[in-house]
Every structure is written in structure tokens, then in C-alpha cells.
Amino acid sequence: MNKLWLGTALLTAVSLSLGACSQGTPEAGETPAPQAAETAAGSTESDDITEPTKLKLFVTGATFTDTEFKVQIKEQVEKRFKNVTIERITPPAGTTVQDFFSSGEEPDLIFGDGYHALKQLKVVEDLRPFIKKYNFDESRLKPHTYDYIKDFGENGEIYGIPYNSNQHILYYNKDVFDKFGVAYPSDEQMTWDQAFELGRQLTREEGGVQYIGIDTEGLGMLSRSYALPILDPKTGKSVLNSPQWLTVFQAAKTNFEIPGFLPKDETKYMWGRDVFMKDRTMAMRPAWLANMVGPLEELRQQGIESNWDIAPVPTFPDQLGKTREAQVHSITLSSLSKNKDAAFKVIKFLLSDEAQRVISRNGRVPAVINPELEKEYGADVGVLKGKKIENIFKYAPLKTHASHKYESSITKFVTEANLELARGADVNTVIRKTSETIDKEVEKLLKNE
């Protein structure tokens, strides 16, 4: 049964009570009128969908498997709204968001991220009128998720509703620690320097096999410990010369300089997920929940399991007590939809405790404030049974930084900077060269607008 927000429920109760006084009590077996939510204007709008409606959902900028869509959205929505069918549009691999919308597709709902591109294509809807019309309770949303979305509204527009908070943890392989007689990571948060020292003890070759102690995956991921932008959100200028970015560059170089860490392929600076999951020769990997939990569960179902657990993700000394910035997966209306009211009712339902409980039990951190839901995190995911789930929620995630519209276009230069560091280049030189390259690229992009 759909659980309505408390305020909506109270208004509904009053509405139904007044209706009963004027119309009498329904006969036994008679279906009561649909529940209604009172709007700020004093009118009422039903949360039900009475007409047969087909909705289409498009996913962009986020990992969301077909199984997750089926369990978390399709089955729930079609159970709650008997007149609704919802399908996922899956374009061919390699299709860009620009290609997708120029193909003539008209989704009703968009799941994921990438609001800069969606705004430029004019395919997202300002949700403020729908939030008001359907009395959606914004106060239930975790601030670090909702504030991130608000950053995209230049004049207060709300372009999406957070669906889940994708957070970072430290995955560690117990077998690698046991093999070399090293104690597991603490349940208390480490600094990056402490993590690197632990990694040094576990980066070694044994029996012709190279074991990797820790792979932070370089600048892009380490910068999330400070929630750093690459560009000033207002000016578009590189901010890599800041003290915090200097700390990040130095940390990345420290990881690369652990003896035995660098891959033999000189075009690479990291090892990647499969070395932890499939080869099982990596001791520690800081990563997103969504990046690892689903794939690890798929391997488990194939009979491939490893002996791993989770600890709080390390950070810099001045950030202890916080984790990295969270990645916000959200859901919004397409401006192309012909069923916007029905689609928003679906969004409202997907943010109910009922629906958010399902996503929590299936391995996604809810976007709503309700500690009871977090206690059920991963309960229906076999690979998470017996794991230290409490370490996911032990420290607060940072809000994802506000980004300039061209940030995604210049991240490649930061990626290239990793290789220079890995090959021994001086930190300050790499920062200077990368900043100059970025500024020139942004200038070129602005001229071509």
C-alpha cells in the first residue's frame, strides 16, 4: 500500500471526513473515492492515475541495470498504479544523450544525472509547479542530495528529485590480508596516508602473481574527498592551483610511487574493478556502492565469490568524519512527455517510504531521511549478507560540488595528468601545464557557442 506523506495523510483524512458528512458512509463493499492531496491553491488533486497510461523511462549518466529497473521501478509502479505500464527505453550502446533526443524519442521520465546536457537540449521540466500541485514534501529529502540538484537551477528551478545517494566505501579482500599476515582495515576512518602505508605492506609479488595493496584510481576519485570542481562554476577558469588540489595531486603521486604498484602497461595508471572482483589480487579498493555491489552480486549468482568486507573510505586529515561527495541519481520529467501529471505522480510514489524501502533492501541508499530504511540496506542482496553495513552510514557524505557546464568536457585533461604523474613528472609542473590546457579548451568552447 502506498504510504502518503504525513501532511498529505492528515489533509486527506479531513477531506474524507467532510465528504462522509455530506455524502454519507459508503455501503459495504463499495470502493471509496480516490484519496486526494490538497494543493496550496485549495483545490484537490488525486494521487491516483485513473486512465490507462503508458510511461517510458530513459537512463543517462548512471549505472542502473535492467534487473534494478524491473524490481525497483517497474514492479512497484505497476502494482501501485493498476492503469499504468512503464517501460525502459534502451538505445544502442554508444548512443549519446544528444543522439538519443535527436532520434525523435519522447520519454516521460529521465533517470540518472547530466543536467547540464539535458538543460542545453531543453528536455527537462521545472518541477516546481508539480511539487506545489501535488503537495510533494521536499523536507523529507536528504539535503546533500537535493541541494546538489538545486545547483542546476539558475532561477530556483528544480529539475529533478533525488532517487538515491550513491556513496563511497572501502572494499577490502580478507584473503590478501590473511596471505601476508596484515590486520584488516579498522572500522574507524583512516587518512589517505595511513591507507597508503597499509597498501605498501600488501603490494608485492608472490609466486609470480602481482598483488596490489590499494588503487585509488588517481586524481578524479581522490578529489572527491574534498568535493572539488575542476572549473570555477562562474568563471569557467581552472581551479587546479588551489591548496586542496595540490594535496590531491600529491596523494595520487604517493599511490603511484608505491613500489610495485604501477601496471606494466605504460599507458595505464590504475588496475580497475576486475582485479579486485575477478582476479582477487587487490587488497583495497575505494569505490562507489553502485559500481561494485551489483557486479559482485552477479558474480555470486554465477558461483564466483570472494572473501571481502567494507570499511569507511579514507580521507584527508582535515576531512575526517566525512566521506567523499555522494553521486546523486535522480528522476525527473521530460519536457517532451504527454503524460506529465501521471509521470510526476510516479515520481512522488517512488520517493515514498514504501518504494524507498525496496531500493534500500536492494542495495541503493535511500534519498529520503529515514534511518529505519538504512537499517534494511542490502537485506535482499545475497552478496551483502554478513558485511559491515554500518560502515556505509558511519560518516556523512559530502554534497557533490556545483559544476560548470563544460566540466565534463575537460575532465579528460585531468585524466591525462595522472599518466604524467605516474611517469615521474613534478606535481607543480603537471598542475601548471594541465591548468593552461584546460583554460585554452574552455576558451575555445565558449567561442564556439
TrEMBL record:
Gene3D superfamilies reported in the protein's UniProt record: Periplasmic binding protein-like II
Biased composition (Low complexity): 25-42
Domain of life of the source: Bacteria
Pfam family, one: SBP_bac_8
Record-linked SUPFAM superfamilies: Periplasmic binding protein-like II
Position of the signal peptide: 1-22
PROSITE patterns registered for this protein in UniProt: PROKAR_LIPOPROTEIN
Keywords for the protein's UniProt record, in alphabetical order: Signal
Disordered: annotated span: 24-49
PANTHER family: ARABINOSE-BINDING PROTEIN-RELATED, DIACETYLCHITOBIOSE BINDING PROTEIN DASA
Protein name: Family 1 extracellular solute-binding protein
UniProt source species: Paenibacillus mucilaginosus 3016
